Amino acid sequence: MSDRLDFIEHDDIWDKLNEECGVFGVYNHPDAPSLTYYGIHALQHRGQESAGICASNGEVFTNHRGMGLVTEAFNNNELSRIHGHISIGHVRYTTAGESKLENAQPLIFKYSGGNLALAHNGNLVNADQIRYQLERQGSIFQTTSDTEVIAHLISRSGLEIEEAVKNALRLIKGAYALLVMTEKKLIVALDPNGLRPLSLGKIGDGYVVSSETCAFDTVGAKYFREVEPGEMVIIDEDGLRSERFSGQTQRAICSFEYVYFARPDSDIAEINVHLARKRLGRKLFLEAPIEADVVTGVPDSSISAAIGYAEAAGIPYELGLIKNRYVARTFIQPTQEMRARGVRMKLSAVRKVVEGKRVIMIDDSIVRGTTSGRIVQMLREAGAKEVHVLISSPPVMNPCYYGIDTSSREELIAASKSVEQIREFIGADSLYFLSTEGMIEAIGRHDGSNNGGHCVACFNGQYPTEIYEDTKSCTEKC
Amino acid sequence: MSDRLDFIEHDDIWDKLNEECGVFGVYNHPDAPSLTYYGIHALQHRGQESAGICASNGEVFTNHRGMGLVTEAFNNNELSRIHGHISIGHVRYTTAGESKLENAQPLIFKYSGGNLALAHNGNLVNADQIRYQLERQGSIFQTTSDTEVIAHLISRSGLEIEEAVKNALRLIKGAYALLVMTEKKLIVALDPNGLRPLSLGKIGDGYVVSSETCAFDTVGAKYFREVEPGEMVIIDEDGLRSERFSGQTQRAICSFEYVYFARPDSDIAEINVHLARKRLGRKLFLEAPIEADVVTGVPDSSISAAIGYAEAAGIPYELGLIKNRYVARTFIQPTQEMRARGVRMKLSAVRKVVEGKRVIMIDDSIVRGTTSGRIVQMLREAGAKEVHVLISSPPVMNPCYYGIDTSSREELIAASKSVEQIREFIGADSLYFLSTEGMIEAIGRHDGSNNGGHCVACFNGQYPTEIYEDTKSCTEKC
Amino acid sequence: MSDRLDFIEHDDIWDKLNEECGVFGVYNHPDAPSLTYYGIHALQHRGQESAGICASNGEVFTNHRGMGLVTEAFNNNELSRIHGHISIGHVRYTTAGESKLENAQPLIFKYSGGNLALAHNGNLVNADQIRYQLERQGSIFQTTSDTEVIAHLISRSGLEIEEAVKNALRLIKGAYALLVMTEKKLIVALDPNGLRPLSLGKIGDGYVVSSETCAFDTVGAKYFREVEPGEMVIIDEDGLRSERFSGQTQRAICSFEYVYFARPDSDIAEINVHLARKRLGRKLFLEAPIEADVVTGVPDSSISAAIGYAEAAGIPYELGLIKNRYVARTFIQPTQEMRARGVRMKLSAVRKVVEGKRVIMIDDSIVRGTTSGRIVQMLREAGAKEVHVLISSPPVMNPCYYGIDTSSREELIAASKSVEQIREFIGADSLYFLSTEGMIEAIGRHDGSNNGGHCVACFNGQYPTEIYEDTKSCTEKC
Amino acid sequence: MSDRLDFIEHDDIWDKLNEECGVFGVYNHPDAPSLTYYGIHALQHRGQESAGICASNGEVFTNHRGMGLVTEAFNNNELSRIHGHISIGHVRYTTAGESKLENAQPLIFKYSGGNLALAHNGNLVNADQIRYQLERQGSIFQTTSDTEVIAHLISRSGLEIEEAVKNALRLIKGAYALLVMTEKKLIVALDPNGLRPLSLGKIGDGYVVSSETCAFDTVGAKYFREVEPGEMVIIDEDGLRSERFSGQTQRAICSFEYVYFARPDSDIAEINVHLARKRLGRKLFLEAPIEADVVTGVPDSSISAAIGYAEAAGIPYELGLIKNRYVARTFIQPTQEMRARGVRMKLSAVRKVVEGKRVIMIDDSIVRGTTSGRIVQMLREAGAKEVHVLISSPPVMNPCYYGIDTSSREELIAASKSVEQIREFIGADSLYFLSTEGMIEAIGRHDGSNNGGHCVACFNGQYPTEIYEDTKSCTEKC
Question: What are residue D89's phi and psi, to 5 degrees?
Answer without folding.
Answer: -140, 165
